[in-house]
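Researcher: Please predict.
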Amino acid sequence: MSRSTYAVVIVLAGLSGACASSGATPHPFPTPTVKAGAKPGPTPRPSAPSPAAKGSAIAYSLTGTALGLRGTPYRNGGTDPNGFDCSGFVQYVFAQHGVVVPRNVSQQFRAGKEVQPSQLQPGDLVFFTTVAPGASHVGIALGGDEFVHAPSSTGEVRVERMSGAYWATRFVGARRVL
């Protein structure tokens, strides 16, 4: 398969999935890349809670639960470890710690309190615009520059950097529900 054909296949595959919040088709999510011959690096670990977050042990435990679900496949409308969409993943992880959050992205974007990007803590919800104006994708902040999420139908639960070229330009806000 030629490089250009491979690129078209990847783009079309990325366009085939959507987050449960809108039913729309998202732009393709970035895929992790490993250079030929390179060995994958160590698995990212959640950052230790900042001094402000030390009182929220649940947030640190919650990020551990989220990280334990890495590799779970994306499933449109999915809300359990057989497959998640982005908001189903968030709802499931929080429920494991007795925290009720709404089911879809737009409702999650209105839950809790707004958080400035400079004040993000582990367990905060981070929102991105991927399929329509406004919040259409959600993940869970891990601390530092990382978040965990369930990206489109070609993906699986994974950790990414908010400063990555794809995500940095699509960030629309953050909320604290704990």
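Model: The first strand starts at residue 79 and ends at 80.
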